[in-house]
Design brief:
The complex is a heterodimer of chains A (about 300) and B (about 260). Chain A has about 300 residues and is an alpha/beta fold. Helices cover about 25% and strands about 25% of the residues of chain A. A six-stranded mixed sheet of chain A has the order 5-6-8-9-11-10. Chain A has a four-stranded mixed sheet with strand order 3-2-1-12, covered by helices on one side. In chain B, the strands form five sheets. Chain B has a four-stranded mixed sheet with strand order 5-12-8-13. A four-stranded mixed sheet of chain B has the order 11-10-9-14, with helices on one face. A two-stranded antiparallel sheet of chain B has the order 1-2. Chain B starts with 10 loop residues before the first strand and ends with a strand. Chain B is globular, with a radius of gyration of 24 Å. Classes of the chains: A alpha/beta (about 300), B alpha+beta (about 260). Chains A and B meet through α1, α2, α3, α4 and β11 of A and β1, β2, α1, β6 and α3 of B.
Chain lengths: ~300, ~260
């Protein structure tokens, strides 16, 4: 059976099973490693589910719920990465009253591996963000803000490398232009730099120097703008060495991830899961030991 | 995910090609994605976590401060373009509170659309919590004096983004993203005139794309934008009245085929 046919049949099987257990038979192949990437964005201090008050999102979301789902997935698969694309803060009185402390504690308890910084994460100022970092046991990652003249100097990582099984994964982060979006006094001397060139430089380092097998970009740029403001789609098309962009900022509920070709005509997957912790994104990536005859032709399959 | 009720909005199996990038040891063979909705169906999934005990003391404090009912609203507060009940109420409330603080008449009040952070609050009891969720930012209420030309720019900016909340002292029509027929206190906008406008310091300092306001002098009213809303709701209650948010044609849109 050739690979293409194999995958098609796997897809069919998955559909028959209601797609419930992600029963990819590919796992039966030797030397295959599955990495399960779970992700959120723009949770905006939504600790509790939305109240049952007739609002559009009533009864949805909630950190405790998310923790249960994450734990359940952790019990089913070996390699989980848990990531957030920024705007952790601001939106409920939890932030007004405690400045982000409980948000960081809960993300730490859930085992987040990394998060990037959204514009609203500056809402208590640079100092307010610094103050909450001791409550986080995971790093905040960004490569296009220059924090050298701020209290965040040395506290934000440009990237993080995680090894899961035999797979090495590089994680980088990019943030949105702050001028006009965040009051000057709040971001202080933080300098915004071009996210595309900085993401590409960091990704090149991760792929070529650090020999990562897969590079994830946590982005708070936004999914799509009609004008020339940089967004995840423009970043994907202008990128090299990035495999996956987990986005935020625009609160976009995507029906399905989008796959675009990068400068080297390689696929970049973009995903974003709305806001407020209403959704948890899950992307399972299957890696196999390289054999030239196993390299497959490109086929995107959407199963609904 | 085993329970059928948890099924995703989508599930995709994406077969990735790395035909030209076979230099690394491990390469991507496939990607499968799914989105999991956080509904009450997952509440009993798996085992209890440490989160409830972590959250409890914080929630108790929040509840103690935020569950206070400020007023009763006769209609839902809905965030909508070009005009919604939430925005109308917020703009009128801040205008009224600014006038009380200044002890003088103000021409109009605006709020940036993205400054309101929830889509809908049901009619009935409006708690302090809802005011925080509508307006979570610690922005201040300010008064700014604009010349006629800058006022026109402001209306065009609001029109271009489909309509921002404005007080009942003004109205205009959006035509192809431009503001037409701008009426301020019953009179057409005078390009040579001058207008007093209430807004948040965030917008006055150029936020939400209002860079044309940046650097203009404004008067700080030393009250949080949100606190002005809270005060208005409390004053309505004290008078034995109810909040009556409504849409009344402050912003009209010309339909084009």
């Amino acid at each position: 059976m050739n690979r293409r046919k194999f995958l098609r049949q796997t897809g069919k099987t998955a559909a028959l099973l209601g797609l419930s257990a992600l029963p990819y038979d590919i796992m039966a192949l030797p030397e295959t490693t599955r990495i399960t990437i779970l992700h959120t964005n723009d949770v905006h201090s939504r600790i509790d589910p939305f109240p049952m008050d007739g609002s559009r999102n009533e009864g949805l979301g909630g950190a405790e719920r998310r923790a249960r789902v994450i734990n359940e997935i952790r019990s089913e698969v070996e390699h989980v990465l848990l990531l957030d694309s920024g705007d952790i803060f601001q939106g409920t009185p939890y932030f007004n009253m405690f400045g982000g402390e409980i948000e960081m504690k809960l993300m730490s308890a859930m085992g987040y591996d990394a998060a990037t910084i959204g514009n609203h994460d500056f809402d208590a100022g640079v100092d307010g963000l610094v103050k909450q970092l001791p409550h986080a046991n995971f790093p905040l990652i960004n490569c296009n803000y220059d924090f050298s003249d701020t209290a965040l100097h040395d506290k934000i990582l440009p990237h993080k490398i995680v090894t899961k099984g035999s797979v090495k994964i590089g994680i980088l982060g990019v943030g949105i232009e702050l001028d006009g979006l965040v009051p000057d006094a709040w971001y202080g001397n933080t300098k915004y730099q071009d996210p595309v060139s900085h993401a590409n430089q960091t990704a090149a380092y991760l792929k070529q120097v650090a020999k990562c097998n897969y590079v994830i970009c946590l982005s708070h740029l936004g999914y799509r703008y009609e004008d020339d403001q940089v967004d995840d789609r423009k970043l994907a098309k202008s990128s090299r060495h990035i495999d996956l962009i987990l986005g935020g900022h625009t609160h976009t509920f995507m029906d399905a991830p989008e796959v675009l070709a990068n400068l080297d005509n390689q696929p970049v997957t973009i995903n974003q899961v709305g806001w407020a912790g209403i959704l948890l994104g899950r992307i399972d990536v299957f890696f196999e030991r390289n054999r030239k005859d196993r390299c497959i032709t490109c086929e995107n399959r959407w199963i609904k | 995910m085993k329970k059928k009720g948890l099924r995703s909005l989508c599930l995709t199996l994406v077969v990735m090609s790395l035909a030209t990038a076979c230099t690394s040891v491990m390469h991507v063979a496939a990607e499968g994605t799914e989105t999991i909705r956080m509904t009450s169906r997952v509440d009993r999934m798996g085992e209890e976590t440490s989160l409830p005990s972590l959250i409890a003391p914080y929630r108790d404090s929040v509840d103690a401060e935020m569950n206070e009912v400020l007023a009763i609203s006769t209609a839902p507060l809905v965030k909508e373009k070009p005009e919604g009940t939430m925005g109308n109420w917020v703009a009128d409330a801040t205008l009224h509170q600014a006038e009380l603080l200044l002890n003088e008449q103000v021409d109009f009040s605006i709020c940036n659309y993205s400054g309101m952070r929830v889509d809908r609050v049901a009619e009935g009891e409006i708690t302090r919590r809802y005011m925080f969720e509508i307006m979570p930012f610690d922005n201040f209420l300010v008064l700014i004096e604009l010349d006629g030309t800058t006022t026109k720019k402001l209306f065009d900016h609001m029109a271009a983004s489909g309509g921002w909340p404005i007080s009942n002292t003004v109205s205009y029509t959006i035509d192809n993203g431009k503001a037409l027929d701008i009426q301020i206190k019953g009179k057409s906008l005078d390009p040579g005139g001058s207008y007093s406008v209430v807004m948040s310091d965030y917008v006055a300092n150029g936020g939400s794309g209002c860079d044309f306001l940046k650097g203009l002098p404004h008067e700080a009213l030393n009250v949080y934008y949100r606190d002005a809303m809270i005060k208005e709701a409390q004053m309505i209650s004290e008078k034995g009245q109810k909040m009556t948010p409504r849409v009344e044609g402050r912003v009209k849109v010309v339909a084009h085929e």
